[in-house]
Design brief:
The structure is a homodimer of 339-residue chains. With 339 residues, chain A is an alpha/beta fold. In chain A, 45% of the residues lie in helices and 16% in strands. An 11-stranded mixed β-sheet of chain A has the order 3-2-1-4-11-10-5-6-9-7-8, with helices on both faces. In chain A, strand 7, helix 8 and strand 8 form a beta-alpha-beta unit. The interface between A and B is large, with 53 and 53 residues.
């Protein structure tokens, strides 16, 4: 493993390519390469694809860093990263580590993406554990940020405080929210409500020396739309809640569309309503959100969902390039080590 | 405190009245009394209202057990129950304990309802902690049951196993599901996925001697509609998830209705669709579900939501009477002590 050099300055990062795991996701490599080409052509973002050249195929003129292995979607993450040192995921993380890429984007195996980023880029100084930040749509407003959306099934209060700090720094850079409000997901607004982890975390955040603007506890009913800019929770609760929301949204949408196609009359009515409904549905569509972000590693790492089409990859690359250029990693490092 | 006598036989319970806390909920006593009167008049269910006679007012011929105190909606539950021994909640629980009522129903302070039931009725033999069972709608099918929906913020694996056993017994009696399937809420289907509590619980349930038909882990995305008849989780995760689902459903419904009222054309389209949408909305409406049920105390206790109208109370009373008559408590007692 190469030793990690000093982090490139944000200005330098803007000229570095975004490393795109061409083999990640259910629709790889076709949709991945298409999304990367669009980001290069329409936005002039420098790109380097990573993958075995025979599998990736035509890159449309994009640079390719070749490798020989691919970690499959449902492969054991730790084993995959340990055994497949020449995989597209591990090589993508190494490009960031070696200052040959500004950021990495993958729609592949989430656990293996986290493990690759953590093992190759390393943690930011002082960070106990990285976490996943996921957008929570708020119609007509900037999304809120949920941390941790699933990186850590078991958390300590000190970890949750860092998630709050990193989540706020991320919300500021990602959504231009000047002084993001932070709330703790719990089962009641009172500081005494919750499990031991939540009560301890509440006490630490309320003490006021963490650098975040802490609103207090937030209940599940205030999650969509979120009453706070950043919602902090452990990765178990965060993952269960996020997936429950995603699943119910999908179910309701399917139910609504089934009603629309009942008969000719309902189909005609649906045609009147669809122009109003589609922009709303678009705000909830993970294709448009730019993906989730791994916070706390020494590099920018965007985790796109497994079913990403070229649109999702295009958006994820834009977000990755933008945040690398803005020096997200520096901001995160400062957030967890307030003066 | 009177000593607890032997539990009346289910046959005897059918002739006992349901004790209805006339002062519980945001719309008490008006809507509560109205719902109780309807249950008595339309369904012939014997009812006894509980509350201060000057506050309850006209009972429409229903019996009233008078008391002098009321525990407020946001009063500290433990303190309320300790200090207000002559409150409508405590007296309702005592009527069940003393075999003067078959069941109790309250839309009041949830924590105080649990505390009253637990302290006055007592736990069933062997039950570590009671839990709250809440219906999860499955359109066109019997609802699934979520346990624990919020009684216990902190749980052990042994508690979760009992929640599974009681939840299955409840699903059988409440929804006539012959052999309910049980799943454990987690962040992945594999037994190795989850926090330590979930992994321990998975091992106990998979061992196969608990008397429940265990399917394995279930992810948040499979919660609405639920892939299992009973979903087991700790009360923290259960409460956060349930409220997140309730909040997002309300938000989406409001969003949909806002679109409907955009202009004349959308209003006309909405009129075509509403006859199809309203039956679906009704299945999600907590007014129609019959409320949540406290499982594991030595008596039937239905917890109706705080904003209950007469319809919700009417449905809750029907459920309480039905389950008391079916001997729910006996079934729960047997479920936690399999031969």
């Amino acid at each position: 493993m190469s030793p990690k050099g000093p982090r490139p300055a944000p200005g330098a990062l803007a000229t570095l390519p975004v490393a795109v795991d061409a083999m990640g996701g259910d629709k790889a490599p076709g949709e991945i390469v298409a999304g990367a080409r669009r980001a290069a052509e329409e936005n002039g973002i420098p790109i380097v694809l990573v993958g075995p050249s025979d599998l990736v195929g035509e890159t449309g003129g994009l640079d390719l860093v070749t490798c020989t292995e691919v970690i499959a979607m449902h492969e054991d993450p730790a084993q995959g990263v340990r055994r497949k040192k020449d995989s597209s995921l591990v090589r993508s993380a190494e490009l960031v580590r070696d200052a040959k890429a500004s950021a990495m984007v993958s729609a592949g195996n989430t656990g293996a993406t986290m493990a690759s980023a953590l093992l190759r880029m390393g943690r930011l100084p002082g960070v106990i554990r990285p976490c996943i930040a996921t957008p929570l749509p708020r119609l007509g407003h900037a999304p809120a940020v949920l941390v941790d959306a699933g990186a850590n099934a078991e958390c300590s209060a000190a970890m949750l405080v860092q998630f709050a700090q990193m989540g706020a720094a991320f919300a500021k850079e990602r959504y231009d929210i000047a002084d993001p409000s932070v709330a703790l997901l719990s089962i009641g607004e009172e500081p005494t409500k919750g499990n031991p982890l939540v009560k301890q975390t509440h006490a630490l955040l309320a003490a006021g020396d963490t650098g975040v603007r802490f609103l207090g506890n937030l209940e599940g009913r205030d999650l969509l739309p979120s009453a706070a800019d950043v919602v902090v929770t452990d990765g178990f609760t965060g993952n269960v809640t996020l997936k429950a929301l995603e699943g119910s949204l999908r179910f309701l949408l399917e139910t609504l569309f089934a009603v629309f196609s009942t008969d000719e009359e309902t189909t005609a009515a649906a045609e009147v309503l669809l122009p109003h409904l589609l922009p709303i549905a678009a705000e909830f569509d993970p294709e448009n959100t730019g993906g989730a972000m791994l916070l706390g590693v020494d590099g920018v790492c965007v985790i796109s969902h497994g079913s990403s089409s070229s649109v999702a990859i295009y958006n994820a690359i834009k977000v990755a390039h933008d945040l690398a250029t803005k020096g997200l990693v520096e901001h995160l490092a400062r957030a967890v080590a307030p003066a």
